[in-house]
Write a structure and sequence with these properties.
Shape: elongated
Helix content: 25-40%
CATH topology of the largest domain: TIM Barrel
Pfam family, one: Glyco_hydro_20b
Number of strands: 20
Strand content: 15-25%
Number of domains: 2
Strand order of the largest sheet: 11-12-15-16-17-18-19-20
Bound molecules: ligand TNX
Catalytic activity: Hydrolysis of terminal non-reducing N-acetyl-D-hexosamine residues in N-acetyl-beta-D-hexosaminides
Family: Belongs to the glycosyl hydrolase 20 family.
EC number: 3.2.1.52
Number of helices: 14
CATH architecture of the largest domain: Alpha-Beta Barrel
Oligomer: single chain
Keywords: Glycosidase, Hydrolase
Distance between the termini: 21 Å
Length: about 500
């Protein structure tokens, strides 16, 4: 049976259309789990204008059976039942139900279906760079809602870079006092207070998302030098490929990379690294702390290896799992169990493959973020006013969709892959409207690759583009200003 008329993304693991009448939402009521019921009420009201009553009709329950995050959904003319293995599973069942809501003549209905669904990968992430441009709480909450609606469950926050430090730390108040006021192109900066950060974590948790915070080191640290000049190496300006020249002690508002470095092998730097990650660990309930490690072109290879060994050990000693960009795999002393984030291409260079594999060889797993497929900051089309192009851009929706995680890093199999993450770097991204313009609809491709089984009749570009096209009206009512790419038959 074809599922093409149903605009479901990510594609459920198992789905069958049932015979019989659809379920009519007018006058319908909901019963069961209060959190899930509240989400469903809000979403149905937004989508249809209908207020669900309280009582029999749509039954929502958690029953503890089945894999983590899984759910079952049965809809018929007489009622709907969604059963989650856990609260996250039930939440995802609600998201699926909202995607199923359709207009039938003048009525809002849910077609008769039977779905049994669970995720392929445990880690399904998006990253938001709040350093190049600062993004306020409302924007972050809106992005959490967008990601969670596609069953993504990790928000990686890139909290520091050359352009600014974005999280208040009590142990190091100079960071936000001296290095948060500006952003790329002279845009206003900003930072999260500790209460703001807790609010982000709580909001994410209410949508079953875990926050993975990143302080990027030892490169991408020009801003640290504004607060602590003694911790910074002199900028290695000769490696800048784009943008303006950084000046030590002055805010950097360009978009060059690879020029800054912490001073390695210095007790003051070690104390700084210990302080910032210890405080970050205290503030962060999730299991992962990301220490960056990318593009440290202003650091010698020996210093880089020493830094990676000590930072990954320090984070491990805090009871957290370190995460680093794949270059950190070059360091022989990388702490066992460190998770690697691969950002090479779908067909990587030998060095990227070797570095990524090094994490697995030390018992760590991999997050796949192949830049030519899932970097949401690449232009979607050549004429897009926003976005970059360095990763073989523009990156079409079909390119974002047509890749298979187990075929990227040779020798890295399904069990070694923790999951998939779609980063959004924000050199060109200042507002929620900009985020929507770049993230959508490609974020839906990342979500399907992370959630849905690798194969199946409908796990194809032809099916995906049609299902995405059917989501247009829902996205519009949710206020998502997605670009109507020509690759998609929007309905
Ligand atoms: C590379 S990908 C970076 C970032 C830039 C991004 C722009 C990675 C780990 N580092 O510093 O923002 O390209 O696409």
């Amino acid at each position: 049976m074809t599922v093409l008329p149903l605009p479901l993304v990510p594609l459920p693991a198992d789905l069958a259309l049932a015979d019989g009448a659809p379920y009519a939402l007018s006058g319908a009521a909901v019963t069961g789990d209060p959190d899930a019921a509240a989400h469903l009420r809000t979403l149905v009201r937004t989508r249809t204008g209908l207020d669900l009553g309280t009582g029999d009709g749509i039954a929502l329950a958690v029953d503890g059976s089945g894999p983590a995050e899984s759910y079952r959904l049965e809809a018929s003319g007489t009622g709907i039942r969604i059963t989650g293995a856990d609260a996250a599973g039930l939440f995802y069942g609600v998201q699926t139900l909202v995607q199923l809501v359709a207009r039938d003549g003048g009525a809002w209905v849910v077609p008769a279906v039977r779905i049994v669904d669970s995720p392929r990968f445990a880690y399904r992430g998006v990253m938001l760079d709040v350093a190049r441009h600062f993004h306020d709480l409302d924007t972050v909450r809106a992005y959490i809602d967008r990601a969670a609606s596609l069953k993504l469950n990790v928000l990686h926050l890139h909290l520091s870079d050359d352009q600014g430090w974005r999280l208040e730390l009590r142990s190091r108040p100079e960071l936000t006092a001296e290095a948060s006021a500006t952003a790329v192109g002279g845009a206003p900066g900003g930072y999260y207070t500790q209460d703001d950060y807790r609010a982000v974590i709580a909001y994410a948790a209410s949508r079953h998302m875990t926050v993975v915070p990143e302080f990027d080191m030892p490169g991408h640290t020009h801003a640290v030098g504004l607060a602590y000049p003694e911790l910074a190496e002199a900028p290695a300006v000769e490696v800048i490929t784009e943008g303006s020249t950084p000046v030590a002690g002055e805010p950097y508002t360009g978009i060059g990379v690879g020029f800054s470095s912490l001073r390695i092998g210095d007790e003051a730097t070690d104390a700084f690294v210990r302080d910032v990650f210890a405080e970050l660990a205290e503030l962060t309930p999730g299991p992962w702390l990301h220490f960056g490690g990318d593009e440290s072109l202003g650091t010698t290879p020996e210093d880089f290896a020493q830094f990676v060994a000590s930072a990954s050990a320090a984070i491990t000693a805090l009871g957290k799992t370190p995460v680093a960009w794949h270059e950190a795999g070059a360091a022989a002393g990388l702490a066992p169990g460190t998770v690697g984030q691969f950002w090479g291409f779908v067909s990587p260079t030998d060095a990227a493959t070797r570095h990524a594999r090094a994490f697995a060889e030390r018992g760590g797993r991999l997050i796949l973020s192949p830049a030519d497929a899932v970097y949401l900051d690449m232009k979607p089309t050549a004429d897009s006013p926003l976005g970059l192009t360095w990763a073989n851009g523009p990156t079409s929706l079909v390119r974002a969709y047509d890749w298979e995680p187990t075929r990227v890093v040779d020798g890295v199999d399904e069990a070694t892959i923790l999951g998939v993450e779609a980063p959004l770097w924000t050199e060109t991204v200042a507002t929620l409207e900009d985020i929507d313009a770049l993230a959508f609809p490609r974020i839906a491709a990342a979500a399907e690759i992370a959630w849905s089984p690798a194969s199946g009749a409908e796990r194809s570009w032809a099916s995906f583009r049609s299902r995405v096209g059917g989501l247009g009206p829902l996205w519009t009512t949710l206020g998502i200003r997605f670009p109507a790419l020509e690759e998609v038959p929007w309905t």
